[in-house]
Amino acid sequence: MIFDALHDSAKRGELLLIDGGFCHWHLRRDGQLTIREIIATRKGAGSAMLARLLCVPGAESILAKCPCDLDANAWYARRGFELERVEVTPSGRTLNVWRRRCLSTVPVEEVDSQKSPSPRASSTAVVAITSHHILWGLPT
Questions:
Q1: Dihedrals φ, ψ of 10, to 5°?
Q2: Protein fold of 2-101
């Protein structure tokens, strides 16, 4: 059940909730941070979540999978992710597999931005999930 998975992730500090955004992620022992689900409902929320993920201690790279037919692929490309490969799911859906290195010297802003680097984001928030929380946009 998704509730149990999210609760376990929250206990590990691998759940990020911000105003207008939600990200469920996992940091593997080899340093790969995998985005499991990410939802942004306001402009800038995705970039704010990415800024926090780039600062996760121990993360060497961020991996995300995105269905090939979604506009979100352009978002990943603009933010310095590289297309690593294309996969086909058992149901026949084609996914782009994106990866971005987590280097402390890389500015958090978009790669094509001309802004000066911003201060480091605070550490990832740990959120307690209870039966009173409503998680929208997730499969039930």
A1: -65, -40
A2: Aminopeptidase (3.40.630)
